[in-house]
Specification:
Number of domains: 1
Helix content: over 70%
Largest sheet: none
Radius of gyration: 18 Å
Shape: elongated
Distance between the termini: 42 Å
Order of helices and strands: HHHHHH
Strand content: under 5%
Amino acid sequence: MSETTSPTAIPARGFLPGDLPRRERLARIVRVDHAGEYGAKRIYEGQIAVMGKGRHGKTLRHMAEQELEHLEYFEKQLNRRRVRPTLLQPLWHLTGFLLGAGTALLGERAAMACTVAVEEVIEGHYEAQLKHLGPDESELSDSIRKFQAEEVGHRDIGLLHEAEKAPGYPVLSAAIKAGTRAVIWVAERV
């Protein structure tokens, strides 16, 4: 038997039995990315509400503007592909703002720790998505790569602003990362 006809051979592009059909996989990608960018927008709005007039206000507004650009792109993708947004968007509206404002109330370093934690998860999340997009989705892939690079830039800004010196950084970071991963899982499906 040739490698491609072997019962144990991996199908082209890594698809396996039980994988989602292409349309549903793309719907999940667009849905979760829209939800994530909406949540990121709300996190920055919460941080700006608390710290907007401080020394990090300009930086926070810059990152928020990039998140808004990402959100607008995925809103267009939802409409173009006829994908419904997550049903939990009202929850992300509240929890995103509370996470941003709450970490900002803990201090500038804690706010930056939030950015670092979220963006580290998102970088990996985008990377995993890119592995499922073929050449027929080059425009979506290119946009995700661009947004991924900007998210990495946000992470780097957080590190530059001493995120790792936030009180309880390991615990705070781990909690935010776990929450971000949980939200990703839910937003893909609901």
